[in-house]
Amino acid sequence: MLFISKKDINKISQNLIQDAVKDAYELVLSNSYNMPDRIHVQDEKNTLLLMPCFSNAFFATKLVSVFPDAVKSNQPAVNGVLVLADNRTGQPLAIMDGAAITAERTGAVGGLGVDLLTSIDLKTAGILGAGVQGLSQARYLLFNREIAQLWIGDLSLACADKMAQTLKHEFPNVTYVTTDNSEELVENSQLIIAATTSNKPLFRDDPALVKGKTFISIGSFKPGMKEFPDSVISTADHVYVDTLFAAKESGDICIPLENKVVELGKIKPFVDLLEKPISLENKTIFFKSVGMALFDLTVASAVYKLALKETMGQKLDF
Ligand SMILES: NC(=O)c1ccc[n+]([C@@H]2O[C@H](COP(=O)([O-])OP(=O)(O)OC[C@H]3O[C@@H](n4cnc5c(N)ncnc54)[C@H](O)[C@@H]3O)[C@@H](O)[C@H]2O)c1
User: Fold this and answer.
1) Which range of residues forms the domain containing residue 79?
2) Which of 82, 134, 142, 301 has its CB 3.0 to 4.6 Å from that of 195, i.e. a possible disulfide?
3) Atom 12 (ligand 1): residue with closest C-alpha?
4) Is residue 192 pLDDT above 90, yes or no?
């Protein structure tokens, strides 16, 4: 049994992680996985998610919690543990830092979204939410595109400035602009990625503000949570979700469905893009990710195989 820490996981190349996310979509296409809808356990504002999934070679369970107010005590909102096991023998193979796996795979889910839903010439982008997922989204965005100007927006300008400083060391050629005004960020960005714990839309409901841009929502994972105003989904020429469960789970999809702002038929699984790429010119595009256990499974499997090859991680006696 191996223990694979955050430090080990953070050393792994973005290429390997993004390929592993693509592997998850390939398994969806071939229907070679077994995954129930994830279980939410609610305790007032806090949530525990139980995320099991089987593939042919491995199975994994991630236990991940989201404590939205943890930021007030300088702690991460998302924590967790992932157990990877052998699907021939049932034996547990590895325990991994579930928060680190989540941050990397979610960054890569956004990264693949950027790759398939924005022009190769994309130059301006904005990240709303300068927390753990916001930083990971920025890293995968900059891995996929040569951005000239990156806006970073957060309720706390200090958080946005801190994220800009971190990124400046890693990607010195980018110009960073920080703001606590999300509308200014949207006006100045061709791509907007939101990774906040907000329950309410982050900017005004105005079709003129959103037309012709690409929007990726990473945050809202409960029916009462919504990051974007209805104009994003109603103006969008294309709407994608990483899993169709998002239509039940996220307020960004289920609220406009309930209010008949959009019809269910407009919402397509992201995996369609692997088979049928779309023309992006002058299009408004919305991609909503809630995450799924299958991403954790394929990323954890790739991490485990690499750990065996490069003798990473710590051996544990069970
Ligand atoms: N789609 C997925 O697969 C996936 C995976 C992991 C986490 N998430 C979700 O992403 C969200 C962010 O997680 P995190 O770990 O980065 O949390 P975090 O606490 O580290 O960061 C959240 C940031 O959002 C900011 N924020 C909150 N409300 C805002 C608003 N109205 N305007 C601007 N900024 C605002 C906070 O100030 C904070 O800096 C959570 O809701 C989490 O559940 C989604």
Assistant:
1) 2-102+294-315
2) 134
3) 196
4) yes
